[in-house]
Every structure is written in C-alpha cells, then in structure tokens.
Design brief:
By secondary structure, the protein is of the alpha/beta class. The chain has eleven helices and 16 strands. The strands form four sheets. It has a five-stranded mixed beta sheet, sandwiched between helices. The radius of gyration is 25 Å and the shape is globular.
C-alpha cells in the first residue's frame, strides 16, 4: 500500500509566488492536488530584498496548505525563473592511445571540470550540469561511448550556476519555515524538457519568449540546455511606440486592438473609428499605420534576440535547429502574430513555430519527474571520499 507523501513546490517568477502540491498515485500517475499564486513581495531586481516579509508570506501559505492537505511538509522543491543565473560551456578530454574508454575516465573528467568551475566562479554554486556532446576520435556519438576503444576522447558540458548568496538566502528562508530546501530547478530547463518529451525528434531548438516587460532566448542542443540570455524589453514597447506616433492613449489603443476585426481584408485601409478616441480629440489615422509601426519594432526585436545576436551565431550554424516562439501576452498574439511570422521568414532561413500560451501550465509534473528520476542529459559528478586505512579495510570485506 502506497504511503501518502505529496510534494510541495514553490515557484518564484517575476510576478508571483506559486504554491503547488503534487502526488504520485499507486499506478505511478502524477497529479496536481493544489495550486495557488500570490503576488510576489520581498524580491526586487532578481534578488531577495526583504527576508522577513517572504518568511511570513511563506509560513502563512504553507500553513494553509498543510491544513487543507492534512499533511505536514518537511521539504520543498523550488522552481526559479527570475534570479541571476549564468551558463558556462566547457570541454574536457582524455588521451586513450588506443585503450578502452571506461567509466572512471568519465568520472575524472566530470569531477575535474566541476572543480575548475567552482574554483573560477567562487561566488556561485552549480544547480545543473548537462552533457551536450561526446566525441571519440573527433566523431560525435549519441551516448557516452563507454567500452569503445580510441585515441582521443572529449566531452562537452554545460554548467548552470546561481549566486551562492541567493541560494543561502533561499535556504535560510526555508529553514525558518521548518522546511528543507530539497532541490532548486530552473524553469526554462523544465519547460525545455517538456517540449522535448512532447515532440518527437525535437532535440535541437531555440526558444524565444516575449513577455510584456522582458524577453528571453534559450538554446537546447542534443536535449541539453546550453545557452540562455535575458533582455529587459518586451511587447509593451510595441504598444508604447504606436501610442506615441499616432497620438492615441495606451488605454484607447488597447481597446481598439482588442475589439477590432483583423480578418477583414479592408481593415488596414480604413481609419480608426471615432468611438476609440473617447476623451481625446478625433483625428483621421489609417489603421495600416499601426501595423507599419508594429512591424518596425518587431523587426528590431528579432534582430536583437536572434538574427543579429552574436551570442547565437555558432548555435544557429548547426543543422536541424527548430525556432520556437512564445508570445506570452494575449494582445501581442492576437494582433501581431502574423507580423512575427512574416518578418522572421524574411530575416532567417529557419522556420518559426509558435507555442501555445498554455503549453507550460503544469510544469510541476515534469519537475517532479526530473527531481525523482533525473533527465537524460543531466550529469552528476561523483564525490570521492577520503577514507582512512581502517575504513578501506572494512570496505574491502563488507562492501
């Protein structure tokens, strides 16, 4: 008989703290038992600014959940989406001289690279390590080529890091809530794995996400998260630009965009109706001017994010790269989706595929699977313990 043991998740993003509880049934089906969001407080500029405020907010919500679930939680998993992260790609190698590649070679490479990263990035700690490529005698292999013979082996890894102080602050907050911080997982990693699981043969892709006030690009290679870049602009800039040029207030402009018939072929040749000016003086403004301004701003977006982004140059040279875009704001999707499609097809040889808004609603199920079972490209360094002579003697006979 399965023991009732639900898992508590707390997601921290740019706008909310999201509390979620998931459980695994006897048939190994994972289901969400509870989910609720509260406006974020005590976090500003991607860092914790009011420790006590967050502690009190967490205690209040966790107590409510425990009463509702009739269960006392001892630990929680955190999903982060707004702290300052960094990714480092590096390679390690081993000269084999015709010998066989063994597990100990891989362990040595992984641990030595981890030590180097820890030494260089003294103020950061590692959250994830990903295997991205394996090369034996300059030939790529799909999996670890353990057991094969060769002359030279190299392995590419990506380290995902967070500031040590950010992690310590989170651990301290959870300690004061009588909870152990089980694991921190990064949201864009979880979202990427969900895409891979839901789409056959989707291993290499660039995902663009344009939110209201910020944007982000992430790149997955061979199912491993390899690159991330954040931008401090979003779709709200499009609305602001249109508002300034045509002299229509943002509120009136949004009212017009939400209520207009964009499927009408004669739409762009008409003037904006007088009813949308409300408290403003009516002026004749062609609707097509709105799209000309939007097209110019969207073209600039895609140049900065992708086509002229020097950080992506090497990634986009690779074959079989899928470009996926998520327009998080409803107004952006409703009005300008075709503009994104048209402009991107003119600027790039890659095809743009749109992601639905609700694609990532239930990432807690995917996060639970990864925390419990791991991800196929995630690497785990092995820590070698320094043992005394007596310890080694007993291990020899009893292990």
């Amino acid at each position: 008989m399965k023991i009732y043991s639900p898992t508590l998740f707390i997601e921290i993003n740019n706008y909310d703290f999201i509390f979620a509880v998931v459980d695994i049934s006897e048939s190994h089906f994972i289901k969400i038992l509870y989910k609720n969001s509260v406006p974020i407080e005590g976090v500003k500029g991607n860092t914790i600014t009011d420790h006590n405020l967050i502690v009190n907010l967490f205690k209040k919500n966790i107590y409510y959940i425990e009463q509702k679930m009739n269960f006392i939680f001892k630990e929680a998993i955190v999903i982060l989406n707004n702290f300052d992260f960094s990714l480092i790609n590096c390679s390690g190698y081993k000269k084999l001289n015709g010998s066989q590649l063994v597990k100990e070679n891989i362990t040595y490479l992984l641990n030595s690279l981890k030590s180097k990263i820890t030494e260089v990035e003294e103020d950061k700690t590692i959250l994830h390590i990903f295997n991205s490529n394996f090369l034996l005698d300059q030939k790529y292999t799909e999996n670890l080529p353990i057991g094969l013979f060769g002359n030279f082996y190299s392995q590419e890894l990506t380290f995902y890091l967070i500031k040590k102080n950010d992690r310590k602050n989170l651990e301290n907050i959870f300690n004061k809530c009588n909870l152990k911080l089980n694991k921190i997982v990064v949201k864009n990693f979880i979202e990427g794995t969900k895409l891979i699981n839901n789409n056959k043969n989707l291993n290499n892709f660039l995902k663009i996400e344009i939110n209201k006030h910020n944007s982000q690009v992430i790149f997955f290679e061979n199912s491993a998260l390899k690159f991330k870049q954040d931008f401090k602009f979003g779709s709200d800039l499009i609305i602001q630009d249109i508002s300034k040029v045509i002299g229509l207030s943002i509120e009136n402009l949004k009212d017009f965009l939400f209520n207009s018939n964009f499927l009408n072929k004669n739409f762009i040749e008409e003037n904006i109706e007088k009813v949308y000016f409300k408290d403003q003086q009516f002026r004749k403004i062609k609707k097509k001017l709105i799209f000309e301004i939007a097209d110019a701003r969207i073209e600039e977006f895609l140049e900065i994010l992708v086509t002229k982004n020097i950080n992506l140059k090497s990634f986009l040279k690779k074959k079989d790269v899928n470009i996926l875009i998520k327009l998080a704001e409803e107004l952006n999707t409703k009005c300008f989706k075709e503009s994104y499609k048209k402009i991107f097809s003119n600027k790039s040889q890659f095809k743009l595929n749109f992601l639905e808004k609700n694609t990532f609603d239930d990432i807690y199920v995917d996060a639970k699977n990864i925390v419990q079972y791991g991800w196929k490209t995630e690497a785990v360094p092995i820590v070698h313990e320094n043992k005394s002579f007596i310890s080694r003697f007993f291990n020899l006979f009893f292990n």
